[in-house]
Write a structure and sequence with these properties.
The protein is α+β, with helices and mostly antiparallel strands and 177 residues long. It has a domain of 120 residues: 3-Layer(aba) Sandwich (Aminopeptidase). It is built from four helices and eight strands; from the N terminus they run ββααβββαβαββ. The strands form two sheets. It has a five-stranded antiparallel sheet, sandwiched between helices. It binds coenzyme A. The site of coenzyme A (COA) has 17 residues, from strand 5, helix 3 and helix 4. Coenzyme A binds next to strand 5, helix 3 and helix 4.
Amino acid sequence: MTDASVPGREVLLETDRLWLRPWRVAEAAIHRELWTERDERVPPHRRIDADGHPTVAELAERIRANPPSTTGFLAIERKDAGDVIGYCGLIEGQETPGEPELAFELFRRAWNQGYATEASTAVLDWARSSGYERLWATVREWNTASRRVLAKLGFTETDRREADPLYGTTLFVTRRL
Ligand SMILES: CC(C)(COP(=O)(O)OP(=O)(O)OC[C@H]1O[C@@H](n2cnc3c(N)ncnc32)[C@H](O)[C@@H]1OP(=O)(O)O)[C@@H](O)C(=O)NCCC(=O)NCCS
């Protein structure tokens, strides 16, 4: 892995097939395409609304305002094709300060080729090198693919779950680094 722990240096992670690096403002439209592919069971605040929000400009502003530090979202770029296939990263946990949440999302065309697992492995190393000792993830009970990725990465389920009859129960899983 490229050394991502040097303060002030842009985060850059490398795996066999992938680069993980900050989103570029010019890639806001690509980011928005991911939103358009989301499952209908994803809650409305994470979907494009009837008025088209978030717009490309709004997502560009979010990218500009949130450069990754020890947490943040990293665009996943394939080394061979040079295309961005999604993102993987860490969100500072609301419930558990100092124990961020792992998150990932890929374009459908890139699913089931091991990319989320490969990208997450690098993000786990990044988290470890930043000094974190435990990570969390939240996943809807119906999301078999995401649950499988988390299991492959060594996350285990806890007793904590939040029922939601509309969009599905959220499971809280965790992994010590
Ligand atoms: C979750 C997601 C990132 C997985 O990405 P991916 O690159 O396809 O993941 P991987 O290829 O590394 O692993 C997927 C695993 O799930 C399995 N899987 C996928 N769909 C499945 C299904 N419907 N039923 C059972 N297993 C399934 C695959 O077989 C694979 O497991 P295996 O290696 O044991 O065969 C991708 O599906 C996605 O972007 N989903 C939408 C966003 C999302 O749900 N993000 C997570 C929110 S918690």
